[in-house]
Design a protein that fits this description.
Helix content: over 70%
Number of domains: 2
Oligomer: single chain
Shape: globular
Radius of gyration: 18 Å
Number of strands: 0
Largest sheet: none
Distance between the termini: 26 Å
Mean pLDDT: 90
């Protein structure tokens, strides 16, 4: 449990820095913008690696990851449905589009849907800690974005980028559903996968 909790603390503490504009400005001013970004990236990566290792170990260690609640089977169907717009929104965060403009911060919206979907489908302590932390952070950061009055780039003319974001999001969803989740996470989503 310790690597997961430590990873979550490291990952989210470093991600809280940009939510405090004065703190971020001060650090970037003292360190220089490039050094600040490099340190931020390395610390976030260390946190992410600890999260992956800690969560992975808890999934295979008998008795170390208690089941807090047993999700009914229908919650998995809802999770599958929620993951579809989540993947589109996550992709839209990187594609200038009407989707990105309308949602204001599609990455945070996608993370909220992703975390909610996984909380519905998983009742073990490690999953509740992992996905609950991401959901709480995404809610906090969205509130922080409003408070900081972050400017959202306007959408380009036309709908080509929206089609690209949707198509890429659907492709990512299809990949994760058919092979990606089993390959990357070790948990097959469809019957007959190994």
């Amino acid at each position: 449990m310790l690597p997961l909790v430590l990873g979550l603390l490291v990952f989210f503490l470093v991600h809280l820095v940009p939510t405090e504009a004065d703190l971020r400005r001060g650090l970037a001013g003292r360190l220089g913008e490039n050094r600040y970004k490099a340190i931020f990236s390395v610390v976030a990566l260390v946190g992410l690696v600890l999260i992956i290792i800690g969560y992975g170990k808890l999934q295979v260690m008998a008795g170390k990851n208690p089941e807090i609640w047993t999700p009914p089977i229908w919650t998995r169907h809802i999770a599958f449905l929620l993951m579809l717009p989540a993947m589109v929104l996550i992709v839209a965060a990187y594609v200038p589009s009407h989707i990105r403009t309308a949602t204001k911060h599609p990455m945070l919206a996608g993370i909220k849907l992703w975390a909610t979907a996984h909380l519905l489908a998983n009742g073990d302590l490690a999953s509740i800690l992992l996905f609950g932390s991401f959901l709480a952070y995404a809610v906090y950061d969205r509130i922080s974005v409003k408070r900081r009055s972050v400017k959202i780039p306007t959408a380009p003319h036309g709908w080509v980028n929206d089609i690209i974001a949707i198509a890429a999001g659907l492709a990512l969803y299809g990949f994760m559903l058919t092979v990606g989740h089993a390959w990357l996470i070790g948990v097959p989503l469809l019957p007959g996968q190994s």
